Structure formats: structure tokens, C-alpha cells
Amino acid sequence: MTGAVEAGENSIHVQVDNSYTPNCRWYSGSGLIRPVYLLIRPKKYIEGVMIETLSIDPAEIEVRAEVHGENNNEVNVKIMDGAECIYQGSTGRIKLPGAKLWEADSPCLYRAVLWTDTDTVEQKFGIRQLTWSAGRGFCVNGKETKLKGCCLHSDNGILGACTYPDAEFRKVRILKENGYNAVRSAHNPCSGELLEACDALGMYVIDELYDGWYIPKTYHDSARYFHDTWKDSVKAMVEKDINHPSVIMYSIGNEVTEPASEEGILTGKRLAEEIKKLDGKRPVTCGLNIMLMKWNATFTDQGEYKKEHLPDCERKDEGGSALFNAMMLKLGAAMGIFVRGKKADRLVSGLAGCLDIVGYNYGEYRYDEEGKANPDRILVGSETLAGRQWYNWKRVQKYPYLIGDFVWTGFDYIGEADIGQWQYENRKGLPLLYGAGTIDITGKPDAQMAYQQTVWRQRKEPYLGVRPLDVANVRCVKRNWRMTDVMASWTWHGYEGRKTMAEVFTDAPYVKLLQNGKAIGVKKVRKCKASFPVIYEPGTLTAVSLNREKEEIARNVLITAGKADGISVSMSKSTLCANGQDLCYADICIVDEKGYPVQDEEWDISIELPEGSKVELAGLGSAAPATDEGFTARSHRTYYGRAQAVFRAGYEAGDTEIKICAGAYGIEVTKRLTCTGNKESEGKFL
Predict the structure, then answer these.
(1) Ramachandran region of residue 173, left (φ > 0), alpha (ψ -120 to 50) or beta?
(2) Is residue 479 within 8 Å of 436, Cβ to Cβ?
(3) Segment 434-461 mean pLDDT
(4) 353 contacts: CB under 8 Å, gap ≥ 6
(5) pTM of the predicted structure, to 2 decimals
(6) d(CA 194, CA 199)
(7) Phi and psi for 543 in degrees, rounded to 5?
(8) What is the Cα–Cα distance from 171 to 155, expressed in whole angstroms?
């Protein structure tokens, strides 16, 4: 904007046009949903900084940079390990003896400071090396690495589509604490803030370029721009990702049906080649849904899509992934028949030759045959069901060419409403969420997460869950994306004598269930799961894992809470930086007099902020998949006794007293948040 600004005051306008809707199959948000920066630089500024690992033993990197508008590109650099300078000199090849390597279990980061006589820039980086082959699998720094992954939409729960550094760090921290070591962005390039969190906390990333190419999946999606913008989109993604060690793979698409045609295969080849031209150090994949490719090859005339854009007012009926979702609801696991056979193999082979690693969406029934049919092919389960985790992970462990599994999804998300949740007749409200994430939108893991941890052998004690008594005898439409609706609660006041089902997840051979100390039964565990019919009585429900001799290994106990007596409020921070970006998460829970959660109560929670507050309420809501309430009001009803509020810092320092109230019960909790003028945030790694 150098030629446009004038002396004195200038006004910058950023305009968003979201008049063409729907533009996405899920909730895309509207407005400035990611940070916008105004960069003020000298005319001779440093650009194109790239830091590449050349070798890890000994550690050697290459630092490249240019000076805009200069033929002489001499740039100085020093490499910092915390406050210690371990190298200073010119850019180029640099040896760093004894340098620590970056990987998920030890995410060691360095900082490069580059400068000239007119400009200085900094760039964080990690030293790590990727290799991949069908025989050895996927290796990080020479070690075979299996990806325990999840797919991840870009929204942030009750904050909607907005990206904040605190929200991204918190999201990655929760995913890692629950056992994931990898995420696949679904289905668009992830934010730089998410990548910074993955770099710092240690999370591998498959960054995905597109949900579709030139065949639309909904009326006004990016298909209308694809032919004109795909090169720019590739360039933007790679330039964003190039220095992030967390990015280990690029995906050129999700469930694209175009590769059923020659034009589609050529498109995939062009995308892959363009990525390789910009970054040859990372593999390229694509999430292929074989059933959709077979459907498209048989029933769709693609000619009308591939040559020119459709006018704004003309679109064909929705297909693609929306069609697959509809068929999944009807057919479930029976859809496995579509991924087998020679026709399926021919369809995959067309695009597979353009890819380093072939991603299968719900294609697990091909895993066993791939090693013989295509011995040089490397696979990743790019999208799978939590309920198939036992089957899938056995094969990930068995086959080197199968490098990992990415469940749909990690965090629950806004949009694709109602396809995941189990729908009960007595639950009303507008479908809002997908409804089957292994972690709900407030960050609380559910039974599906516990099942994955059990399959991965990460849990020491069994997981014990109970089907909610308020819906135990209600007509239910089950969705195939959700494997169970049990929850870790034995508090159901007023349901005494009602029958329900308890489920236990354990990797032990046997499990015993006790009710109030009395044995209900012992069952053999199959696929890490055992189920027991139980009749509700207040007290305790205990699951005991047993070895082959039926001796106790570990146990887990659910305790009936007393009468609801108050609310507990857990604040993620007490101090925020007055930068307009810092967040404080307040987890709200109905509790009894001893502090035990009371999950069978639902209260209306309200937030009161004083006049002149230094913080604002950025969101208030619950994990309810269907609700007539929004996330921007000052009150919201709990869901199974829980709700969440998020407070956002303003731009002025000072203290704010926040009141969290359950007014109908005369309950009020006061919390204090302090905004400071410090540049650095407290507890950045939320």
C-alpha cells in the first residue's frame, strides 16, 4: 500500500462478501475469522526465509533468505537455543553439533534471527527428518512412527469459527493429553496459530488443501474458483507450512470424486507436482473415498463440470461427501463391500501414482489385501470410525505400509449437523453440532476417546460408562459415526429401579462388574469391550479388570452424587494480557455439597459483567448437539450438568469481577480476572 497511503491519518477497509451461501458443507463462519495483520517494513526487507534440515547425524541445516529489491542477498543469521547463541554467521549450510531433534515426544525448537543493515526477522524452526517407504513405514528422525490421529475442523466450539492463539494451544494440548500425536486439518489449510501450537507442544500435522476440486459439493463452494486459483492456493499453503516442523504431510483433497476420470487424475497430478516443486521434503497424500469414486465413475457425467465454471445462479444437486454421509446413515459397516475388488483397485491406482502416501477414508477393508496387490504402496487411514478402532489399529501395528489412523473426529464441531449424534425422541432443539466427536466442543473427552486410549494401551484402569437413564428406554435413531452414548456417571435421581446398560473398555482378558460391592457378573472382553445390563440403584458401580487367572489388575468406580447444591467454576487463567486476544476458559459444573458432579441436573447459567469491564464474554454454551440457544447470549442451559464460558481480554488494563449465576436457585460464584499491559500472555500453553 506504499503508493496509496498519504501523510496524516489513513483508513484501511477490509470487506467480506459472504452473500453466496451455502459455501461449505459445515460451519465456515463469516467475517474476519483469522487474524489480519498490518506489516510495516522497510523498502529493503528480508523475505522468503526457508530453513531446511539437510541431515540429523550430524545435524546440518540450510538457511535461505532474500532481500526484496536487492541483487546482493547477503543476510546475516544467528541460531538461538533459548537465550544461548549456538551459531552466528551467514546464511547457507550450517552445522549444529549436538543439536536436539524435533519430534512429537520431544518438540525441541530453535530460533533463527536474520538481519541486514535495514531489516531484522525471526523464525522458529525444528530439526527433523522424514522418510517413508512401504517396507519401513513412516519414519521421523529414522524411527518408525505410527500416527494416532484425528481429523480436526477449524472452528473453536462456542467461539465459532474465530481463531485465537489461546484457543489453538488449548485445543492441541487437550488432544495430546488424550493420546493423539497427529491431526489432519479438515478440510482446508489450518491456521498458522494452530501450527505454532503443534510445533511447541509436539503434534504431527497433515495439512489439507481442499474438500473438493472443480466438482461442487455444495452450491457456492470453492469449485467455482478452482481453475483460476489452485496454484495460488498451493503456494499460500506451502509458504505458510514450510518452516513448521509439525507439518509432516500435505493432502491435496478430501473425498474428491474427480479422480474417477482422466481429467481428475491429471488435476491430482498437477496439484501434487506443484507442491513438490515448492517443497520436496514432505510426502503428498489425498483422502480417497472409494465408494464415492465408484459412484461417480458409474452415474455422473463429469463433462459439464470440468471445462468451465457454472454461472452463479446455476448449480447441480449436492453430491460427493454429502451423498456419502447419507449412505453411511443407511448402510453403516456394510459399505465395506464398495472398497474391495478389482474395479476399486483400478480407480485408486489412477491417482495413487501421483501420491507418496495413499489416504483411505473408510477404506479399512482394503488394508489386508493392499500389501499383496500393491507391495510398494504406503497407506494411511485418513478418515475412520471410532468404533472400528480395534480392527484398524491391529492392522496399523501389523503392517509397515499402514502408517496410522485418523478418526472422524477429534473435537466435535459446528455444522454437518445431526449426522453423528444418536437422536432420541425426547430430545428437542435445532441440530447444531456434528455430535460424535471423541472430545466435545467444551474440551471434555467422552467414552469414544476412552475406547481409543484402551485400544492404544494407554489406560491403566478400565473405563466404565453407563447409558444415560433419561434416554435408556426412549426410541433412538443411532448414527454410525458414534459407537456409544455411555457416560461416566452413576447419578440418576428419580430413575431408581430402571434398567440400563453399562459398558467397560479394557485391554484385559476379563472384566467383573460390582454394584454396591455385590458382583453382577464376569465377562470375557471382546475387542476391548464388555457390556452388562444393570438396574439403577444409588451407591457405587465398579468395573474390575482381570487377568487370565481372573485376578484383579485395576478397577474404576462410579459414585452416586448427592442432591445438587451449587456450581463449581474452574478458570483456566487469572491474568490476561490486554491485547484483545487472550482468552480465559471457565468450565462450569453443577455439584453436590461434597463437590461431586451432578450430571442429571440442568440449570440455566447466566454471566454478569460490570459496567466498564476489562473483558468481554466471547462465548457461553454447552456441548448439547441440538439446542435452540446460541453462544452469544449472557445465559445458557447446562447439558448433563455442564456449561462453559469464554472471556476475551479487552485493550485496557485493570480488574474485572465476573459473576456466574444460577439465579433460579439463588446461587452465585464470583471470579476475578486481571488484564495487564504486559506483552506476554500468562500460561500461553492453555
Answers:
(1) alpha
(2) yes
(3) 97
(4) none
(5) 0.94
(6) 9
(7) -105, 135
(8) 10
Decide if 359 contacts 382 (C-beta within 8 A): yes
Report the Cα–Cα distance between both ends of the chain, in Å, rounded. Answer: 37
Pick from 230, 253, 261: nearest CA to 350:
261
Element of type H or E holding 326 = helix 321-331
Q: Check residue 73 and give its pLDDT.
A: 75
Distances (CA, A) of 514 to 511, 525, 552, 683: 10, 16, 13, 42
Ramachandran category for residue 655: left, alpha or beta (phi over 0 → left; psi -120 to 50 → alpha): beta
Q: Which residues pair with 138 in a beta bridge?
A: 132
* The one-letter amino acid at 362: Y
Q: How many angstroms separate the CA atoms of 545 and 529, rounded?
A: 11
pLDDT band of 335, cuts 50, 70, 90: low
Residue 311 has pLDDT above 80, yes or no: no
Query: Which segment of 158-172, 299-313, 574-588 scores lowest on mean pLDDT?
Result: 299-313
- The CA–CA distances, whole Å, from 387 to 174, 241, 298, 451, 483 equal 21, 32, 30, 8, 5
User: Cell for 160?
Assistant: 465459532
Cβ burial of 388 (10 Å; 0-12, 13-18, 19+) is buried
Provide the 10 A C-beta neighbour count for residue 645.
26
Average pLDDT rounded to a whole number, residues 62-81: 90
| pLDDT in the model for residue 127 | 98
Sign (positive/negative) of CA torsion 260, 263, 266, 268?
negative
Q: What does DSSP assign to residue 90?
A: E
